[in-house]
Amino acid sequence: MDYRSGSQIREDFLRFFEGKLHRRVHSSSLVPQNDPTLLFTNAGMNQFKDVFLGAEKRDYTRATTSQKCVRAGGKHNDLENVGFTRRHHTFFEMLGNFSFGDYFKKDAIAYAWELLTSPEWFGIDPAKLYVTIFEGTPQVPRDDEAEQFWIATGVPKDRIFDMPAKDNFWQMGDTGPCGPCSEIFYDLGLAASETGEDKPFPQDDQRYVEIWNLVFMQFDRASDGALTPLPKQSVDTGMGLERISAVLQGVISNYQTDLFTPLIAKAAMLTAGVLEETFDPKVLKILSPIEMAISDDPAAASLRIIADHARASTFLISDGVQPSNEGRGYVLRKILRRAIRHGRSLTLRGHFMHEMVFAVRDEMKAAYPELVDTAERVAKVVLAEEQQFARVLEVGSEKLDGLIREVRSDGWMSLLAPYLEKLGEINKQRLEIAAQLQKPSYGTKFDFGMLSSIVGEVFSADETSAIAQQLSVAKFVVSGKKAFQLYETYGLPLDFIADAAHDANMAFDFEGFEAAKEEEQQRARASWKGGSQKSASPVYRELAKTEFEGYSTLRVDGAKVIALVKDGLGVSELKAGEEGEVVLDATSFYADSGGQVGDTGWLLAADHQTTVAEVRGCTKPVQGVFAHKVVAKQAIALGDTLDTLVDGERRRAIMRNHTGTHLLHAALREVLGKHVKQAGSLNDPARLRFDFSHFAGVAPEELAEVEDIVNRQVLANTAVQTFVDVPIDEAVNDLGAMALFGEKYGDRVRVVKIGDFSTELCGGIHTGATGEIGVLKLVGESSVASGVRRVEAISGTAALAEFRRGFAVAQIAGDAESLKSKLTANEEEIKKLRRELDQVKMKAASASTADAAGSAVEVKGVKVLAQRVDALDKGQMRSLVDSLRTQLGSGVVVLGAAAEGKVSLIVGVTKDLTGRVQAGKIVGVLAGFVGGRGGGRPDLAEAGGSDVSGLDAAIGKAGAVVGDLLG
């Protein structure tokens, strides 16, 4: 085998299958589009799921890709193994070839063997290869067919092995396409064996590595488990670029390939604090990148983790994911923080991870040129996360110190229980204070002089000495459950927490920690179904595509009803007054997509005049099928012929806003920089909303400049050109079209071009020229998330109405006295309305908590009432806490509210319980869930936070927190 770089291997694979008449298809985004069952794109077939299910058709039946994949959450979670094994990664590339009802086993097997063994291609020695096939079950026979095809290619029969269904039978989900698969393994040799024993295939999974999986989809599994042959058999294959690179480069670890060694070297330089030109492993007395790729040294593992996680983070952020506390953003945050922690473990104290972004860009830009444009933005996101994590570690360390003090104090009080009655209440409190004052690193040791000063008046010197001895040898335990809360909430590493416990002469509850971690992972798995795939709804799956004619007309006559749906089920008729969905063979209605809302309007009878149904919206439940959401005015039956009529005035308002969005996007990039990329949009009749990547608030003068640029384009009345059915390569490379985040593009696309100012891939409906927008007025700018801003704007008649309101205000301002009088009257009216609103809010909140005793839960004998009251301000929350404590008589009240991106928490404890549990401690723990801190008196305490997404968790955890504090 000749040495090939990873980039060359990727290109050779794609070029080989192009020679076999496969369409080279771009990698899809790491954020799966139109598939809520997936956290991240984790296989090459994800972007073809609808094609395999029959819900989408393309103009090719063979495809080949190199697909970006991430496995770090949900079902496919490799995160904890990354860096410590040879082949686990969070980010990897999956090479694949696909047949959609075209060729099947014979050709798939022949292609695979030719590519792997032909001297013109990869040139692998066939004696190094092994093949597996499906061994069969009572329901599905052994795959003799695949075996015969392998033998026909030249594979000896003694190198073909039967494997069970768990290894060699693939299915998309509980139902849908499935079938046997055939895997190809490569023998890395005895040097790769972990045991050093010369074991035969397949007994050593480190020596014999799977490099390619060929999936043969030939059955359709029904809900009862029955299998029926598919009318069109298909092929889905996957070969990891990192694994095949290791094979072709003659190494035993993926991290030894040129896909990783430059990144490992960069990580070593950054953590060693040296410049690139001074990097010399011998001089620095560190391992070379190749040695670091396989060394068992913990520092080498940390460098591998940084290299891997830098790739995943760079691509995830480039594809629009932002660090956050939920969903995809939460997984990204865990990946980033894991890499940062390992960097800090290498004595690094500065920020370094953002610099790894540029190393990833330099290594991957040939295959993914978009990284050149996004790297600056990605690096800023990573740097912001590094800075925030540094603050989190600082706060988390304080919380850990507090936990250790709490364990020591509780332990001392427990050991001293037999003496407390004799000591009396005052001395007991003095002991508790002394325990809290001890530094965490002092462990359980207690200063004899301090102890004597507290108990010496009560006990003899011998008794005091005995008590001190008992305290000094006690071994207290740090709760694994509470430690996991610090791990999860503040990102404190497990070894960091365990070391702190050891330094304090305490044991650490590892079992409790793992149990809490498993419980959290189960919750995560319940939230994200991982790779669980579901077939398209039977109601829509087999329907022919709707012919969409709405680009050129508001009306289509003579459309035929091909499906009627009510409550999710197909019906033969919708009666007058019923709501449902109507699917037609043709329509003028645009369906929700690309940020543009669906049209509304009417369905007319065959006489072209009578309204049969009011259309309140239009969607695409599966690709190409338009479902009209209707309220029937007359009975509608399958086979009826109807006319579709779109509300033209509403459509034109949407068109103005959608074209305005394109102008706005281009103007923002011109004023703020080319890092600006769309992160979401909404175009409806009233206004447009545009979310984009940017790190700071947009200054008023910048907004004014953006508005000026847009309106100059409007005044120019530039024609809006549309190009249809353009190959995506031509659209991006030749026309310079910008692909928008969140959109799912096929191999051929629609391009909207506005002069030389804006060119984007877009399926929406636009004005014929920019002048039809009339004017575009910006009306708002705000933050949506870290690194994402939002602007809102209006156009056309809505903008005219805004200008009229401004003119009316200006007229009033001309008469100062009139203005003063009007403002005073308005102010009084506002005060009155606010008082009335406050009363309504309090009544509503009081009504919702009227049965406080009944709503409270009992935790270790204490009533706990926790509720969310978003409508109330802090003063109202305090009043409600007092009211609820009175209703409970004895108990704990926790109230939380969110408004304008801020969280407020208030905890009240009735006086009789403050000796057992304090409000300040409760609110301190709960504040961690919302990214804040707080405190207060034992009976009343408050906290604030900035993470609204964590409020429900904080409310839900209130009972558990009180229980933990009660002991």
Automatic annotation (TrEMBL):
- Which segments constitute the Alanyl-transfer RNA synthetases family profile domain? 4-805
Protein name per the record: Alanine--tRNA ligase
Residue ranges annotated as coiled coil are 816-850
> Pfam families attached here?
DHHA1, tRNA-synt_2c, tRNA_SAD
**What does the note under cofactor report?**
Binds 1 zinc ion per subunit.
Gene that produces this protein:
alaS
- Cofactor entry: Zn(2+)
Q: Give the UniProt keywords, A-Z.
A: Aminoacyl-tRNA synthetase, ATP-binding, Coiled coil, Cytoplasm, Ligase, Metal-binding, Nucleotide-binding, Protein biosynthesis, RNA-binding, tRNA-binding, Zinc
- Say which family it is in: Belongs to the class-II aminoacyl-tRNA synthetase family.
Any keyword Nuclease? no
Which GO MF terms are attached to this record? alanine-tRNA ligase activity; aminoacyl-tRNA deacylase activity; ATP binding; tRNA binding; zinc ion binding
The enzyme's E.C. designation: 6.1.1.7
NCBIfam families according to UniProt: alaS (TIGR00344)
Function statement = Catalyzes the attachment of alanine to tRNA(Ala) in a two-step reaction: alanine is first activated by ATP to form Ala-AMP and then transferred to the acceptor end of tRNA(Ala). Also edits incorrectly charged Ser-tRNA(Ala) and Gly-tRNA(Ala) via its editing domain.
Broad class of where this protein is predominantly found: cytoplasm
Q: Where in the cell is it found?
A: Cytoplasm
Reactions catalysed: tRNA(Ala) + L-alanine + ATP = L-alanyl-tRNA(Ala) + AMP + diphosphate
